[in-house]
Amino acid sequence: MIDRAGLAAFLRHRRESLQPEDIGLPRGQRRRTSGLRREEVAVLCHMSTDYYTRLERERGPRPSVQMLSSIAQGLHLSLDERDHLFRLAGHNPPPRGTDNEHISPGLLRILDRLDDTPAEIVTELAETLRQSPLSVALTGDTTRYTGPARSIVYRWFTDPATRGLYAPEDHETLSRVFAAGLRKTAALRGSASRAGHLVTLLRSRSEEFRQVWDDQEVGVLPGTVKRFIHPWLGTLELDCQVLLDPHQSHCLLVYTAAPGSESHEKLRLLSVTGPRAARTGRRGRTVPGTV
What we know:
The chain is of the alpha+beta class. Helix content is 46%, strand content 11%. It is globular and about 60 Å long. It comes from Nocardiopsis flavescens.
């Protein structure tokens, strides 16, 4: 049974504890609210302000599991806080483990401060959970996929359009990297895991994957430099730094360019025009993630 008073009090406390700078927003000189405004939290949680306001005022329907997950992520809750939120709403908390997609508050705080840098948070199956705005401008919205296609490993071997985002001379190496990475995860999690299912699915749908998989390669690691192909900027050579959250098997990938390089200038241009171009299809060309 839902504890409406407890749920409302907990939401108010968490909202008032979360500061604008915690989510990458400027505080502003006229801010009087302690913590975040309700409308700001509603945007973070992907819901209407009216719906969220009713929860804080002990009204409205009992939130669904999906809605609670969105609230927990939007309010940057820890796993213990997320579980408490679910119990207040009368639901059993989601199971913890390697399939858990709740991003830790620490990784979210870092990502929220990277508006001017391509960055993304991914699972151990290379499923994108969250992107910075410049990451969307660079590669498109890779959080929009569903099913097996959420993993770039699956898309790499089944969707030719995915390869168009990477330099052709790197394709053979990337195929080996993706297969070796999946082999490591499948061995760690077992054949009955989501990783094991992905292996079975790819073996049935991709001749190239079967050939690379049967080579039995392990430990094939990606280089620190990744070469992306952007529709109107061309090739960008970016260094990739990885921050691992070992408790939830999530990684934060951050892409930067050497100062003074051509790619650094291209990133600067992308930071200015990219978000708008991603919405409008700049120069009449299709931009990744807009179709």
